Amino acid sequence: MLAKRGGARIWLGMSAPLDFLGIFAGRLRQAEISFAITSGMACVHYGLQQTTKDSDWIIPAEDLARLRGLLSRLEGELPPWRISYRQICGAPLEPEYMSHGWTSHLSVWDSAGSAEHKVDIFSRPPRVRGEELSADAEGWASQHVVAQMKKTDRDKDWPMVDGLGRRLWRSGLAVAVLHLADFDSLLAAWGVLGEATRRQMAERRPLLRSLSGPPVLTRPRFDLLLMLERLLWERVNRHRYRRYAGPWKDFYRAWRCEQPVWPTDEPFALQHRGLNDAARRHGLPTEPLAGPERSRLVQAAVDEILAMERFTREDVASVLPPVYELLP
Amino acid sequence: MKIQVVPAEPDIEMPEEYYEWLADAMGQEAADWARLPREEREKELRWYHENFNTPDDLAVWPPELGGGEVASTY
Q1: Which side of chain B, N or C, has fewer Cβ within a 10 Å radius?
Q2: Model-level pTM?
């Protein structure tokens, strides 16, 4: 809920996050860097969120060197931009880290009087399959990509998933049934899909099988399984970021002992060099979810849910998405 | 990971039930805002950005590193 105007804390600096999106997108385009604007700002674009100011960008790992070059050039412009890693900076903008699910967190000031723009960068966005990563010519990540990214453990994200599903269905896209979270909408959508599409979608979202019947589940039972399905996504996400947050916090504590001031006032290229050297020196793992870790992680989430004694193994099996869907 | 460039998704006209659902899920103000044409939505958002200095998230840590964690309601 937005605060009312009468209670506003007036901010004297100029804040223009929407303008910044256009400016930064233009600079990326000029530098021939692929990008997709995702998450909160994409939800704004699709009419689903009102208040976000931060921006989230998907930039492929192969374009990161070009991105770092662009950021350094922008610092040398007149008037100069100011670019800095944030204190909680995530991983260095290096393909070895970013192509394995790390995020990097920057602050950007595009002029002396500008507001601080918080820019988060993903190269491998969570829950998005590589072959489905798409954006339009303006750079907006597709609604399906945004919906996948929003399957987090934050309550506020789930209405976005459902809303994006509703919009996708209105556009006639079958992929909507991966995101809809309402019995009636799902039943109606399921009823018009062909057999082959149903099979394909149910592979990814096993809960959908229960719509085929006979008999179709009752609404209360379906709602319960829907709740369980969301709980699985939430727990998997929580475990996923713990695999990143734990090593990152260890790294950061060790690094702070030798480098008490961070971020430094240095140009971005020097900050980057310092962070990158330190990350390697202190053993920040490049790939926290390597090899069988994904399956183990999903199993840990399942075990946690079973330990609640609210759902049976059969319940879990009937809704558990495959590992490639939860952690592609 | 390559980003495929696809045609822009049309600014579709949503049925009344969608806005009723939005009001129910996110509040009447969100639903009223969503009914506006895109330019008007952005104009309103711009006004809020210029007049409120409210961070997106009060958590020190970003969501990927454990910030914004909300206790499960189940």
Answers
A1: C
A2: 0.91
